[in-house]
Every structure is written in structure tokens, then in C-alpha cells.
Specification:
single chain, 343 residues, six-stranded mixed beta sheet, five-stranded mixed beta sheet, globular
Length: 343
């Protein structure tokens, strides 16, 4: 074969191979630790996966695995993503106390508005400024908050500060357990999956979590009352990331990276937060329809609790400052970013 024909044949082979490679299907396995019927999987994760598949013309398939179906514990999720055990997933950095201390500034008492969507915009902006180094070994897709944390307990609703005395209450994060302790409760740090069983066995009197998680955890059966604070700020909030294994992301062709990128960042963070707002409305209604007591503290009692929350902020600021972090700057930045989204 003449050299020109041989070259053309080789070029055609290379071009064909490249075309097949660019059209190859990619399956991404994303894992989370809650029921597939809860708010974030229903209103964010599943639509997000569908958008990725549609916008990639089916070349990317996203498989969602609920309740840690691929193994591991909720606390180990970040490391599983980093190490490539899974391709991506949902992470609560606070499940590893002390590992991501700057992120705790987002979870301090009365820091966030009672809107997951608005809180998540502030959280994304804060993450871009302060947390990218912390999450440098994964590919960050979204950073978001859930809606306001509610006190769910057996027996009557919380009516005053003194009602917290001695209650064994589940807390999801270090700031939350710090607050519960200030309120006079006996806080028990515990991830979501362990909460219902602890209630059923009488290990706990209740705990703090969102409205949206209540139905999937059967809190309408395991608790009797649900109490929120007054005002437009949440008693506490929790920070999440939706992330992907960095090597897996980097292995994608540029056009498929672009699909992931188009469904990442501020837009995806706000989307994830709004999912919680949608679920909160549904969850609250389920609790009410089952006859559970729905309560809101008075402005006076909320002010007493908020004062103790400020003590938590002061204690936390001093603690992280001793570890070389600028605690006051972190708190001030959160507050400024929240004020921006509330205007």
C-alpha cells in the first residue's frame, strides 16, 4: 500500500477510535445515607441525575444508591469519594468533628435564615472563599444547607427554656450539640440513620432535625411534638456537599465535564437547598395530619435561647482561634453573606 493510502487508513482508524471513545457511556455511582423518598434525593438528586443524563444525550448514566447501599458509614462518605470507592455522593462534613472546622461557622445557632435555598446561596459563597482548600481532594459540585432545624420529642412540646433540662436529644454536629448542652439538654451526637432506632429503644427523648426528614424517619410515630423557634433565623442548620471523585471527573472528555459543570456551583447549591424547603412543607404537614403537636416558641423564650446561642458562637470562635483559625472573621463573613441573601 502506498504511503499516502497507508497514512489515510491509519488516520481513519484513529478517527474512528476517537469517535467511539467520545461516544462511550459513563456510569457514575453516587451514594447517600437517607431514604430515597426524603427531600434531597426526591427534589434534587434524582432530577440532577436526570439532567446529567439528558444533557449528555445518555452518554452519562447516574446511579443513585440510598441508605449507604454500597457500603460504609455516613461518617466515611467523604473518604469513599476521595478514594474512588464510589464515584460521588452526599457528605455532611460535620459528621467528622474537627476535620473541617471552618465549615462549622455555617452551622452555628441562629446563623442562617429559615430558607434552605437562601442559606445555600450563602453557603456556596462562603465555601468559595474559605473551604475550597478543605475539599481540594474531591471535585465539588454543590455546597448547601438544609432548612431550619426543629426540636422533635416524645411528650409535650417545648414551651420554655427550662423544658430542655435533662432531655437526651440527638444532635447532628458539634455546633448543634454545643447548643443543646447550653440549653440544659444531654446531647448525643448521632448520624441520621441511627436516630429512629435510638428513639424506638428509649435511648433518646428526641432530637433536632428538619421537618423534611420527619416522615422518612417515622417521627410522626416515634415522637409526639415538634417545636420551632420564633423569628426568621433557624435554631441551627447543617452543611452538606455534593461531590465527585476528582480522578473520575478528570477522566471525562471535555464535553462531558461541561455537562457536570453546567449542573454545578451556585445554581446546583441553591437547587439542593430549595429541595429541602419543598420537603419541609410536606414533612410539617404530615406531622400535623397525624395529630402531632406543632408548636412555636414565643419571641421572649426564643430571645433567651438566642442569648445562649450567642454564647456558643463566642465559645466556638475562641476554640477555633486557638487552633490558628480566624474565628471572628469566619463568623462575620457568614453573617454578611446571609444578610446579602436576605435583602
Amino acid at each position: 500500500m502506498p504511503i499516502t493510502l497507508r497514512s489515510l487508513a491509519l488516520a481513519a482508524t484513529v478517527a474512528t477510535s476517537a469517535g467511539l471513545a467520545s461516544a462511550q457511556e459513563v456510569t457514575l455511582r453516587f451514594q447517600h445515607f437517607v431514604s430515597p423518598k426524603s427531600a434531597n434525593p426526591t427534589y434534587f438528586m434524582a432530577p440532577w441525575a436526570e439532567a446529567i443524563e439528558a444533557q449528555s444525550d445518555g452518554r452519562i448514566k447516574v446511579e443513585l444508591y440510598p441508605t449507604m447501599a454500597l457500603g460504609g458509614k455516613a461518617q466515611s462518605q467523604y473518604d469513599m469519594i476521595r478514594d474512588g470507592v464510589i464515584d460521588g455522593g452526599w457528605v455532611i462534613p460535620g459528621y467528622q468533628p474537627g476535620r473541617f472546622p471552618e465549615a462549622e461557622a455555617l452551622e452555628l445557632p441562629f446563623m442562617m435564615p429559615k430558607s434552605g435555598e437562601k442559606s445555600s446561596v450563602a453557603a456556596w459563597n462562603f465555601t468559595q472563599k474559605h473551604l475550597m482548600d478543605d475539599f481540594a481532594d474531591v471535585h465539588l459540585i454543590a455546597a448547601h444547607m438544609h432548612g431550619p432545624g426543629i426540636v422533635h420529642k416524645k411528650g409535650g412540646a417545648i414551651g420554655q427554656l427550662e423544658d430542655f433540662d435533662g432531655l437526651r436529644l440527638r444532635g447532628p454536629s458539634r455546633p448543634a450539640t454545643m447548643l443543646l448542652e447550653k440549653l440544659g439538654a444531654n446531647p448525643v451526637g448521632m448520624p441520621v440513620p441511627a436516630f429512629p432506632e435510638a428513639l424506638a429503644k428509649g435511648v433518646l427523648d428526641g432530637g433536632v432535625i428538619t421537618w423534611e426528614m420527619s416522615p422518612s424517619l417515622k417521627l410522626n410515630e416515634l415522637t409526639d411534638s415538634h417545636t420551632d423557634v420564633a423569628g426568621n433565623k433557624a435554631l441551627y442548620n447543617l452543611f452538606f456537599i455534593w461531590a465527585m471523585n476528582k480522578d473520575k471527573y478528570e477522566s471525562l472528555p471535555d464535553d462531558l465535564k461541561a455537562v457536570i459543570d453546567a449542573n454545578s456551583g451556585l445554581m446546583a447549591s441553591a437547587w439542593a437547598g430549595k429541595a429541602h424547603d419543598t420537603g419541609d412543607a410536606v414533612g410539617r404537614q404530615v406531622m400535623a395530619d397525624d395529630g402531632n403537636e406543632i408548636a412555636e416558641l414565643s419571641m421572649e423564650e426564643t430571645a433567651r435561647i438566642k442569648a445562649l446561642g450567642e454564647e456558643v458562637v463566642t465559645d466556638w470562635t475562641m476554640d477555633v482561634s486557638k487552633r490558628g483559625l480566624e474565628g471572628s472573621t469566619l463568623v462575620n463573613d457568614v453573617r454578611e453573606m446571609v444578610e446579602e441573601v436576605m435583602q
